[in-house]
Amino acid sequence: MREYVVNAKGVKIKAYEYSQNGEPILFLHYMGGSAAIWRSIIPSFTEEYRVIAIDIRGHGNSDHPQKGYQLETLVEDVREVLDVLGIYKTHIVGSSLGCYVGTMFASMYADRVISLVNSEGALVNHSGPGGLYTESKEEHFNKSFSNPEQEFDSREALIQYMKRNWLPWNKNRALVMEDYKPRKLQNGKVTFVSKRENMRQIAEDLYDRRIEEWYDHVRCRVLFLPAEKEGDLNKKLAFIKNVECKLSESKTVVIPESSHAMMFDHAGELVREIKGFL
Q1: In degrees rounded to 5, what are phi and psi of residue 110?
Q2: Per the database record, which ranges form the AB hydrolase-1 domain (predicted)?
């Protein structure tokens, strides 16, 4: 694996290249995650594809600036990474936040995306008619981001917490945490890498977005992967049906028993659906 640090207008974005075979495929992680979430499925793609993953700003080993978390900025970070790596056209596979970034990228730079895979993201608006949330924006964010950041005495204590609470704990989740470096706090304790305030900025930017408008400009094939057990499946299927007519080609698959981060509990099925689509 090769590692790169790309300067995106003063913010350092960490990129990882796992292979150089065939067409590029870029993996974009969910909010609070990092490129490490894909470790369980990346080996299935390295023989046929040039596999790239990045840590989105505010995540993993990329910089964590106090501001600059609009979706357009995250998209430009991706463009900067692709330009530095000499990649013009790529497949994009996203999970949750990664889907929003990937879909907006495909909307802004339609000629640079070969295909788009949206796993539990960019499948429904957050607010408005048919949206995920019915409470006001203020109520939603007070409920979701009001708790203080969790603190742990050590990295080992944080890992033990994850083993008890990130269930079902398995080898795919363990892969994510094997070299996890918690963020050090001023009081000597540690916490999770991504700052709550930075993630709130991303969530606030997403809240009133009209995602269906992005698909007006998407020209590539799209695979939609809503999770069966995440909730609001009917809302997501209705949204997908509404945007399918805008696309040249699309496919929707609901993996049985799947939940939000399906690379951990349904890695085999996820790989099969993505590779079949590609």
Answers
A1: -60, -35
A2: 24-121
17 pLDDT exceeds 90? yes
Contact 132, 110 (CB under 8 A): no
CATH says 2-133+198-277 is which class?
Answer: alpha beta
pLDDT in tens, 239-278: 999 999 999 999 999 999 999 999 999 999 999 999 999 9
The band of 147, judged by pLDDT with boundaries at 50, 70 and 90, is confident
List 102's β-bridge partners, or say none. Answer: none
Q: Which residues contact 19 (CB under 8 A, 6 or more apart)?
A: 45, 46, 47, 49, 50, 51
131 close to 217: Cβ distance less than 8 angstroms: no
Q: How far is it, in rounded angstroms, from Cα 256 to Cα 251?
A: 16
Cα of 254 vs its chain's centroid, Å: 18
SS3 221: strand
Neighbouring C-beta atoms of residue 192, cutoff 10 Å = 17
pLDDT tens by residue, 187-245:
999 999 999 999 999 999 999 999 999 999 999 999 999 999 998 999 999 999 999 99
Q: How confident is the model at residue 135 (pLDDT cuts 50, 70, 90)?
A: confident
Contacts (Cβ under 8 Å, ≥6 apart) of 134: none
Q: What residue ranges do the domains of the chain occupy?
A: 2-133+198-277
Q: What's the rounded mean pLDDT across residues 101-110? A: 98
The angle formed by the CA atoms of residues 82, 273 and 256, to the nearest 5 degrees, is 130
Dist. CA 76–CA 70, nearest whole Å: 10
Q: Is 23:49 a contact under the CB 8 Å cutoff? A: yes
Tell me the torsion sign for CA atoms 64, 67, 73, 75.
Answer: positive
| DSSP structural state of residue 149 | P
For 185-209, the DSSP string reads PTTS-EE-SS-HHHHHHHHHHHHT-
